[in-house]
Amino acid sequence: MVANKDVASASAAEQAGGDGVDVRVAQELIEKAREDGVSLVGPNGLLRQVTKTVLESALNAELDEHLGYEKGDLQGKFGSNERNGTSSKTVRTDVGEVLLDVPRDREGTFTPQIVPKYARRVDGFDDTIISLYAKGLTTGVIQAHLSDIYDADVSRDLTSKITDKVVEDLNSWQSRPLDRVYPVVLIDALHVKIRDGAVANRPIYIAVGITLSGERDVLGMWVGTGSEGAKGWLNHLSDLKNRGVEDILIVACDGLKGLPDAISALWPQAEVQLCVVHLVRASLRYASKKYWPAITKQLKLIYTSPTVDAADVEFTSFCAEWEDRYPAMVRLWRTNWEQFIPFLSYPPELRKIIYTTNAIESLNSRFRQATRRRGHFPNEQAALRACLSWFVGVV
């Protein structure tokens, strides 16, 4: 981490009119991702992919400025110098080796500042990328970071070009083709305050897939309107199918009414696993707080049972203890029993992956902190960027 540099960068950003950058955001992000079992530096993870995207976008924007015209803009071209393809170059970054396609000019006069010639090491870029996402890609922040970390005097105009190219590439990423099969997909919605004329709570639908190689990958994020609903999920999950997802073995989700039917409509063979944490939390809503310790203790015996038959035995005891006092709580479990038990057929190592959507849900507290500091997100794109940053390494 480059804490001292980020402090200086934050100050420079304020002078440039941008938002300040708090290095603690980056540090907390990385630690949180690691706690949730998210790969930060996988070969196909977001951090490495976006590092490549931003570096290449910056290099191409620099060459545009050097030549005086953008790629493909023949009307703006003047002089004899022009683009001359690319050369491959591997640079070492904080997230591992990144293979870059470095643009060239025909006369060989292009001298990039972001990744200098012969440089094989690019330090500090993980903090930069995280801050760019978390702070909404403001030109002031980008300019300050590039100046502070790379000693690169980059103009506001060039910074804006870099930003535009990165946003365009990120939009392409969000519509990228997906794998044909995912063993497990976790889905949940976060609720954040977004200004759309007026400030209102809006759901952000998130789907995280676990690939056949065991890595986590954020498959999609969509900002919804109104409240979270099965119809909204059906529309967004259809996007995954349209992008190539033909089969899912297990979909872990909360107990939203109609959601299992929406999943089955798209992937009839998929097992639906209700999030145990959601189910326990919903159960407690029917009970007095003074009974919560006793109830959660008995519920734990159910969802940690070694087999489905053993869980049936524990559930029978639970019903005998609580059905007369809290019939609605017991009815909740009976209604959802078939969607609760699938994970019990798997060994403990796999149960930890599929029994809860907490990898997504835990972001709620982080977003509450963010919205308390800023009040709300100014638009959908800012909310998605901040959300994306918390999943760095898997998206």
From TrEMBL:
Keywords tagged on the record: DNA recombination, DNA-binding, Transposable element, Transposition
GO process annotations (BP): DNA transposition
Presence of keyword Cell membrane: no
Source domain of life: Bacteria
Example GO molecular function: transposase activity
Statement: the UniProt record of this protein carries the keyword DNA-binding: yes
Function of the molecule: Required for the transposition of the insertion element.
Family of the protein in this entry: Belongs to the transposase mutator family.
Protein name: Mutator family transposase
